[in-house]
Amino acid sequence: MAKGFEQSLKELEEIVEKLESGDVSLDESIKLFESGMKLSKSCQKMLDTAEKKVSILLVDEDGEVKKADMEY
């Protein structure tokens, strides 16, 4: 089952806390770093997908509401 964004972000934050504590061995730090990188990429992919789905509602000069894709 795929993890949701919030769950993945929470796990990533926990990994960062463990790495910042300095209480893990070098081998464990490497494993945690690898897991963190995978989670980071997964979160970024979810954000990119969500961003593509976002649209902005605009009101034209006639007062009509119309949808437009988000511009960068």
Short summary:
Helix content is 62%, strand content 14%.
Low-confidence stretches: none
Query: Structural class, from secondary structure content?
Result: alpha+beta
Give the termini separation. 32 Å
Strand content: 5-15%
Question: What is the residue-averaged pLDDT?
Answer: 86
- Compute the gyration radius: what is it? 19 Å
Share in helix = 55-70%
* Biggest sheet statistics: 2 strands, antiparallel
**H/E topology pattern:** HHEE
Which term fits the overall shape?
Answer: rod-shaped
What is the number of helical segments per DSSP (H or I, 4+ residues)?
2
Total DSSP E strands: 2
Structure write-up:
The protein has one domain. It is built from two helices and two strands. The chain has a two-stranded antiparallel ribbon. It is rod-shaped.
Features:
rod-shaped; two-stranded antiparallel ribbon; alpha+beta; 72 residues
Furnish the topology, listing elements before pairings:
Layout: H1 5-21, H2 26-53, E1 55-59, E2 65-69
Antiparallel strand pairs: 1-2
